[in-house]
Design a protein that fits this description.
Length: about 400
Amino acid sequence: MSSPMDYHTLFVTSLVSRILAVIVLSGLAFANRTLLGLRWFSLALLLWVVRTAIEMLRGQAPLAVTIPLCTYGANAIASFVYLAMFLGFRWFLLRTGPRGRLVPALVLVSMTLYPSEIFFGLWTRYPVGTLPALIAGFASVHLLLTRARQPFVVVARVTAFFFALFLVFTGYRTVVLTHNIAARGLRVGAWPDPQILVTMLVLMILDFCFVASFIWFYVVETQFALRQQTRTDGLTGALNGRALEVEAEREMARCRRNGGALSLIVLDIDYFKQLNDARGHDAGDVALRSLVCLLHEELRLHDLVARTGGEEFLILLPETSLAAARVLAARIRLRIEQSSFGYDDGLPICITASLGLAELAAGGNDTWLALRRRGDAAMYAAKRLGRNRVVEQTEASPVLLFDPGER
């Protein structure tokens, strides 16, 4: 009487399910070519299919074929499977490709140990064979638990849990296989070991969990991109006015609760219309995008930049006093004045900007509208005073903080 669960049945089931997963994920990757992480996940699943097909040769082909192909070949492919998964997670969480070399180097170096059974015996095959996958697995768990950014925190933690289970059952299966080989000297599939079959079934279930997590990463990324489209300016990538207003109200409420400071910089590019008229709107677009990149370089991660008009930007500075905002505004003004941005016609684009400062008033009665009005008044005062200036607006009158003519 045959067992209801055997190696062949498990491999066939695994192969069919993985082929379906490859089709689905490859279709998503092809339709969303900018999501490089999805390509890494698709590659991992494709390699998974190849490895499963090779594993099915156990007991079906001569040992001269199965030993090098199913042992060394399958182990090598498995190593690249988990390395591709690691690189996919890295792209989604850090937005970087395979720049870090430590994990790939460890995986490749550990793969050189595959022929160890020639020197130390057959029992070393499975501990050494699983070593590269375990390295990539531990690296993935560490990455998922320590480097997850919003909005990937939940999916990263759930995936880390799947990976932890995978590492536990892979380690257990390796111990059982090593013990059986050392005790019986037989290859996998030559004896009906229920423990091996159960661990294979559990690992198959975890495979489905990994596929689900890949799709979950894709869904979270897509939803986040859609939310960002409604919050950001399409040309520069800065927040739009409505999004900044929502964030400003939140920051103002937090300042009132905690007694912190909040400052605002209103920045307007000088003579922007003349730039558009003289060199075309494409040159103006280059100036706007380059300016936003420059601002992000000068600001902290929690500072907010929004484009609220053609050439007007608001910079919201949480936990920043007016004195600290003065220093920052002076640095930004100087950086803009000294910068030049490349353009297709070979001539650099040079701009200056007028900046107005305002601070959230103490007492809890100040509003976003009033704060912005004071910042606008300071910026317009900088325009009237000659442009390329930093002006602070108080309730009484604007205060000129910088005059280029004084240099």
